Amino acid sequence: MSFRSSKLLRLAKDRPCVLCSRTGDTISAHANSTALGKGKGIKAPDCCIAWVCQKHHRQIDGTERLDPAYSSPMEMFLWAHAKTVLLWFEEGIVTVA
Question: Is the dihedral of CA 9, 27, 64, 79 positive or negative?
Answer without folding.
Answer: negative
